[in-house]
Amino acid sequence: LSGCVDLPFNRPPTQLFVLSPKSTFDTTLPGVSWQLSVDVPIAEAGINTSRIAVRRSAVRLNYFEGVNWSGIAPRMIQTLLIESFENTGRIIGVGRQNIGLRADYSLISELREFQAESVAGKPPQVRVRLNAKLIRLPQRVIIAGTNRESVVSIQGEGIDNIVNAFDNALGDVLKTIVTWSLKAGKQDHAKRSLRPDRAIRRRP
Question: Which residues lie closer than 8 Å to 26 by C-beta, 6 or more apart?
């Protein structure tokens, strides 16, 4: 048995970590009557993974050993976005793109930064950046776009403190994206409902 110490099944199991949706929002956040579908954020290969990324220089991306997210990062963030929208209590019709929801708007996004950063000469931190666009359906017209970034310092040593920084940074981004989406969609929906019908019917 002593000869088996290097076999894979003798290695400690991978630790899995989850992040939390945003649950606190401004009480003045508007309620909406339209429905929203949330797409999976697109992401480059380095962060389109369940591994927890760490950038140690401007050109090098590594991963923490023995730890993973509970799912692939973009899909995890899609779920957290949907749960955050639901937690506002201001929108009922929200879900994934592929569930057949007859949505009035679609939220598409690109996850551009989602990593810890440990660069020489700088304090360790976590950076999360999400570019989002709100699409009016069925015309598929972009009505608004935004880019949201949050950088949170890592307090203390160990993976738990790193994950806490991820949770805080992503929470900031989720809150601003949800708030922005509801306000932008409400404004556009109000304009559409006030717009007179431009169709001209010809008399026979």
Answer: 179
